[in-house]
# Entry
Amino acid sequence: MQQQLVNFFNEIEQALIAKKPFVVFNKPNKNGLTLYKQNSLELFELENYHQKGFVFAPFSSSEKQLIFPESECEKLTTTFNFEEINNNKQKEVIEIISSSKNEKEYNNLVSDAVNFINTTSAEKVVVSRKEIVSKSNFEVIATFKKMLNNYKNAFVYCWHHPKVGLWMGASPERFLNIENGEFKTMSLAGTQVYVDTVKVNWKEKEKEEQRYVTDFIIDSVSPIFKEVKIKGPYTVKAGSLLHLRTDILAKVTSNDLIEKLALKLHPTPAVCGLPKQKAKDFIIKNEGYNRTYYTGFLGELNIENSTNFYVNLRCMQIDNSTISIYIGGGITKSSIAKLEWNETVSKAEIMKKVL
Ligand SMILES: C=C(O[C@@H]1C=C(C(=O)O)C=C[C@H]1O)C(=O)O
# Structure
C-alpha cells in the first residue's frame, strides 16, 4: 500500500481511537477517499443550506439534521487502487439476534400497508425493519475496505459522532446533486436478485412502484426548473441486486435551490410513499421502531461549488459488537407479503457480506 494511503487509514484509526467525529467516503465509480475529521466533539445542527460541510440528515424530524462544518474540520483526500485495499477479509458466520419484526410480523405489516393503500387514496408505502446481528471484534476499517471493494458503484461511507453513533453504508441512490449548473437526481425502485445478467424483465408491480417515484420527482421539481429531462427507466446493479432507475436532470439558474429541493423531495416515494405525509404517518405509526438516519440523506453541501447528497440505504449502525442492519421495500396494492419479506432478506445479505 502506498505510504499516503497508509497514513490516510491511520488518520481514520486515530479518529476512531480518540472517539472523534469524522466521515470518510468514496463516491460512486471513483477511487478517491475524502475524510472530514472534526476538531471538536461538538454536535453541530444544520442551520441552513448555505452552510458548507458534510450533512447527515434523518428520515423524519424526530432526529436532528447534522453537519460537520468544513470550517471545523481537517480535510484529507487520497486516491487508491482497489487491489491495495483488498484485505481478503473472510466472511464470517453472523448470528441474527433479533429483528424489529419477525417474518410473520413483517408479513402482517405488509398486509396492513396493502389495506391502507386500498382504503385510502395512497398509492405506495415503503415499510422496513431493523435486524440486529452480533459480531465480536467488529473491525470498522476492515469492514469499510471490504465495502469499498464490493460496492464500487455505490456511495460508500463510514460516519461517526460519539453523541450519535457509528454508521456505515453503500448507497446505490443519489438524492440530490447540484454541480456545474446542473441538477441531477434519480428515481430508484423495484428490486430483483441479480442472476448473471442485467437484461431482465420487470413485472408491472415494480414498473408501477418505480413510476410513482419518477412522477413524484417530476411533479415536485417542474415548478422550479424551465425544463426537466429524464433518462430511463433502465436496469442497474447494486451488489447482488437489480433495480429500476430513471435519471432526472435540469439546468440550474439560481444558487438558492438546495433547501427548496431537499424539502420538496425528502423523503421521496423510493423510501417513504405517496402521498408523502400519509405514507410517513403510516410508517411512524406501524413500523414499530425508529428509522433515525436510515432513509435520511447524507453528503457534501456547498463544497467546491457542488452539493452531492445520497439516500442513506444499505446501511448499518454499529454499537461495539452489535450491528443494526436497516432494510425495507416499496409496497403497492399488488404486493405479496412473502416476496416483500424475501426482498428484505436479500437486502440484509448485501450488508452481511462485508461483516
Ligand atoms: C428501502 C430500501 O430501498 C428502496 C426500495 C426499493 C424497492 O422497494 O424496490 C429499491 C430501492 C430503494 O429505493 C432499502 O434498501 O432499504
Q: What stands out?
A: The first strand starts at residue 22 and ends at 26. The longest helix spans residues 204-221.
